[in-house]
């Protein structure tokens, strides 16, 4: 990053709300339908149609505002944002301008450089536009098709203050914001399906200057790493322009992942270019204190509060708490298992080790796997009760993952129960001692590591089913005599 210029970044994040129907009509919001299947005269903007507001969308917008520490408006309204684009059938978008549902919030983030607080300017409701499908790349297309299925899908737009100073902060902000939305369960935040989209405004200014520089807006970034890479590229591009004596042009640019650079799309519009005016077909929105209280009561424990509780009340290391609370499904799975197995650290070790390994290898979420929280708790209890060894448990766990079977049934069917019968183990240990005179001599000469080799031979002989603690004890007793 430049030491002469300061980077200023603000983000506009569109979050698709998880309602079953659109914001102003009864059409389905289901993803993946045939082009233009989820449409009707209302969302296509045909003459004579009128919008009707979906209350669930407002509920979700209020919840988002509360979770982001915003002030929830008593009085809000909708506006027409006028612009012509092929994916906008009415030639205007119903959005909110001067009286959003929520404003003046904040999010706490953390990067390697420290902890920061990022302001949230506003959270407002709006309808989504359609989707243009370009024949070729976006900057060199021979033609475009339009799918209106997404038109009218409810969105909240979350606008940050220009408080971020590095691309890493922007990525951390997005990560935290996405996690909060997932915990609220108001969106699936699936970037591949367009449920979460981010536009970034970035400018440079000489260090010490209060006035902002000329900004560029970056669009079409479909991952958090793309946001970080796009912003990093843009810092260098703008710095090179300024240091060569040129002027940065206010414009909208797109990030091209294949080329690894941003590309100019068009000049950037200002608010007055959209000719906002109050939406005449919708009555203003009055949000009572009772309504706010109802939404407040529905808020779940949010990720930062859960993280703190895992550290303070459960005694987990900060790293463990960060991994577990960094995914809502994982955190919920952990807490469900904890009800039947009250050893947070051992449970955490298994989830961050074997469980995450299998999830990552199979590109699955906890709910996709065959493992249930109750069965994991049961398996860990079997280890503690010496029914199976830790080594055998890994084999059992993989079978649980792929089959969904109960661990007790797997152990019984596969004959994996740990051998803890002393007389049976004594015979096996005696045989291993007889077959390994050199290792025995090493132990008797004080080379204690040779005990490990003998234990390994017993475990090999029993296919890992021998109780390793008992084996170690028996070997030491017999080699002393």
Automatic annotation (TrEMBL):
Q: Which Gene3D superfamilies match?
A: 1.10.10.410, GatB domain, N-terminal subdomain
GO molecular function terms attached to this record: asparaginyl-tRNA synthase (glutamine-hydrolyzing) activity; ATP binding; glutaminyl-tRNA synthase (glutamine-hydrolyzing) activity; transferase activity
Cite the Asn/Gln amidotransferase domain residue spans from the record.
332-479
Pfam families linked to this entry: GatB_N, GatB_Yqey
Q: Which domain of life is it from?
A: Bacteria
Keyword annotations from UniProtKB, A to Z:
ATP-binding, Ligase, Nucleotide-binding, Protein biosynthesis, Transferase
Q: Which InterPro entries match?
A: Asn/Gln-tRNA_amidoTrfase_suB/E (IPR017959), Asn/Gln-tRNA_Trfase_suB/E_cat (IPR006075), Asn/Gln_amidotransferase (IPR018027), Asn/Gln_tRNA_amidoTrase-B-like (IPR003789), GatB (IPR004413), GatB_C_1 (IPR042114), GatB_Yqey_C_2 (IPR023168), Gln-tRNA_amidoTrfase_suB_CS (IPR017958)
Look up the record and give one Gene Ontology term from the biological process aspect. translation
Enzyme Commission code(s) on record: 6.3.5.-
Q: Does the keyword Ligase apply?
A: yes
**What is known about its subunit structure?**
Heterotrimer of A, B and C subunits.
UniProt similarity note: Belongs to the GatB/GatE family. GatB subfamily.
Function as written in the Swiss-Prot or TrEMBL entry: Allows the formation of correctly charged Asn-tRNA(Asn) or Gln-tRNA(Gln) through the transamidation of misacylated Asp-tRNA(Asn) or Glu-tRNA(Gln) in organisms which lack either or both of asparaginyl-tRNA or glutaminyl-tRNA synthetases. The reaction takes place in the presence of glutamine and ATP through an activated phospho-Asp-tRNA(Asn) or phospho-Glu-tRNA(Gln).
Question: Protein name, please?
Answer: Aspartyl/glutamyl-tRNA(Asn/Gln) amidotransferase subunit B
> What's the name of its gene?
gatB
């Amino acid at each position: 990053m430049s030491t002469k210029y300061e980077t200023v970044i603000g983000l506009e994040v569109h979050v698709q709300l998880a309602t079953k129907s659109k914001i102003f009509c009864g059409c389905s919001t289901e993803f993946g339908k045939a082009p233009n299947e989820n449409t009707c005269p209302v969302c296509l903007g045909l003459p004579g149609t009128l919008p009707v507001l979906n209350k669930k969308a407002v509920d979700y917008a209020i919840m988002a505002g509360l979770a982001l520490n915003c002030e929830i408006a008593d009085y809000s309204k909708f506006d027409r944002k006028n612009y012509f684009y092929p994916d906008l059938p009415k030639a205007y978008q119903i959005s909110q301008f001067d009286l959003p549902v929520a404003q003046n919030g904040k999010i706490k983030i953390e990067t390697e450089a420290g902890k920061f607080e990022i302001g949230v300017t506003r959270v407002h409701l709006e309808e989504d536009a359609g989707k243009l499908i370009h024949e070729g790349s976006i900057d060199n297309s021979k033609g475009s098709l339009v799918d209106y299925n997404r038109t009218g899908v409810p969105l909240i737009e979350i606008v940050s203050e220009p408080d971020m100073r590095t691309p890493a902060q922007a990525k951390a902000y997005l990560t935290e914001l996405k996690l909060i939305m997932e915990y609220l369960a108001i969106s699936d935040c699936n970037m591949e399906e367009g449920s979460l989209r981010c536009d970034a405004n970035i400018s440079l200014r000489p260090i010490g200057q209060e006035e902002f520089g000329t900004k560029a807006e970056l669009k079409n970034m479909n991952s958090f790493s793309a946001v970080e890479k796009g912003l990093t590229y843009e810092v260098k591009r703008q710095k090179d322009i300024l240091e060569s004596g040129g002027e940065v042009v206010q414009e909208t640019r797109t990030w091209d992942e294949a080329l690894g650079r941003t590309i100019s799309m068009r000049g950037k519009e200002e608010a007055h270019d959209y000719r906002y005016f109050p939406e005449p077909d919708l009555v203003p929105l009055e949000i009572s204190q009772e309504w706010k209280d109802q939404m407040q009561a529905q808020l779940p424990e949010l990720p930062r509060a859960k993280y703190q509780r895992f550290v303070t009340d459960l005694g987990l290391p900060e790293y463990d708490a960060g991994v577990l609370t960094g995914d809502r499904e994982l955190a919920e799975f952990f807490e469900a298992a904890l009800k039947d197995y009250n050893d947070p650290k051992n449970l955490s070790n298994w989830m961050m080790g074997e469980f995450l390994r299998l999830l990552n290898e199979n590109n699955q979420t906890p709910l996709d796997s065959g493992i249930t929280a109750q069965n994991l708790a049961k398996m860990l209890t079997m280890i503690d009760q010496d029914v199976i060894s830790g080594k055998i448990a890994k084999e059992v766990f993989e079978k649980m993952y792929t089959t969904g079977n109960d661990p007790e049934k797997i152990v019984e069917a596969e004959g994996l129960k740990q051998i803890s019968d002393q007389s049976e183990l004594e015979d096996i240990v005696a045989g291993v001692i007889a077959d390994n005179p050199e290792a025995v001599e090493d132990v008797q000469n004080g080379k204690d590591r040779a005990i490990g080799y003998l234990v390994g031979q017993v475990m090999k002989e029993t296919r890992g089913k021998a109780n390793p603690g008992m084996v170690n004890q028996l070997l030491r007793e017999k080699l002393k005599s």
